[in-house]
Amino acid sequence: RYLPVSNQGKQWYQRRVRDHILFLQPICREKLAVEWPNYYNLNRLVAQAVSSFTGSLRFDGSLNVDLNEFQTNLVPFPSVRFPIVSMAPLISKERIAHTSYNTSQVVNEVFEEKSQFVKCNVKQGLYMSCCLLFRGDFEQNSSSDINKAITNIKTRKDTHFVDWMPTGFKVGLNSNKPRVFPDDDMAEVSRSCVMLSNSTAVQQPWQRLIEKFQRMFRKRAFVHWYVGEGLEESEFDVALSSVQDLIQEYEELTSDNAIDDDDSY
To answer: Catalytic residue at 69?
Structure first.
């Protein structure tokens, strides 16, 4: 049997859902016109991105990128392996009739913070590598359009790359446009781009995670549940140290590049 849920209980659940998917709220609200996103909206959004990651397994393409190439191109060091996902265009059905995107606009939008699936300010970090996965009618244009758009990104003052990665970009191209469900929030578009990028800015959500963890751990909140299942309390310290080491590695990559820049002048 299902117990009836009070209005207060529903509000509590909605707050927990909203807190859990906080980093996707701007996308759902501003781009898809979903005022109160839930797991249904979240799953559809993530499914679109995963569909592009795995497109090379289902379709032929002139420049397909398989899953092994993601790892090879995105992970310069073993521990620095947490990509940021971005997708463009993200647009609601109500707006699609009045909007069109060329190659340059799609590439520019996928580099915007509002298109990211992770909440962090990439302008405060450095890109180490980027995988751009294009789907749709891009192949009707010459690949020079994509190369030109990438070149423009490299010259932007608010987009920074490490100086020890000479290329930094991997491009996948597939002529099959993305599909949506009939009742989806997203409009079906003729072309799209999903980007997997490795940036030092990803340390920001890790830092927020540590701050939240430390506030609870100082009070030993919820610790008894883990200890009761056999986890030793010292393992919390080990986990905290591992994340702190990860953040420090990202910080060193950022500072090393800044030193190199200073030495070059």
So the answer is: yes
pLDDT digits (tens, 9 = 90+) for 182-230: 888 888 888 899 999 999 999 999 999 999 999 999 999 999 999 999 9
- Reported as a single tens digit per residue, the pLDDT across 244-256 is 999 999 999 888 7
3-state helix/strand/coil string of the chain? CCCCCCHHHHHHHHHHHHHHCHHHHHHHHHHCCCCCCCHHHHHHHHHHHHHHHCHHHHCCCCECCCHHHHHHHHCCCCCCCCCEEEEECCCECCCHHHCCCCHHHHHHHHCCHHHECCCCCHHHCCEEEEEEEEEEHHHHCCHHHHHHHHHHHHCCCCCCECCCCCCCEEEEEECCCCCCCCCCCECCCCEEEEEEEEEHHHHHHHHHHHHHHHHHHHCCCCHHHHHHCCCCCHHHHHHHHHHHHHHHHHHHHHHHHHHHHHHCC
As a whole-number percent, the residues of the chain with pLDDT over 90 amount to 34
What is the C-alpha separation between 179 and 175, in angstroms, rounded?
A: 12
Q: How far apart are CA 133 and CA 173, in angstroms?
A: 6
- Out of 30, 35, 69, 113, pick the active-site residue: 69
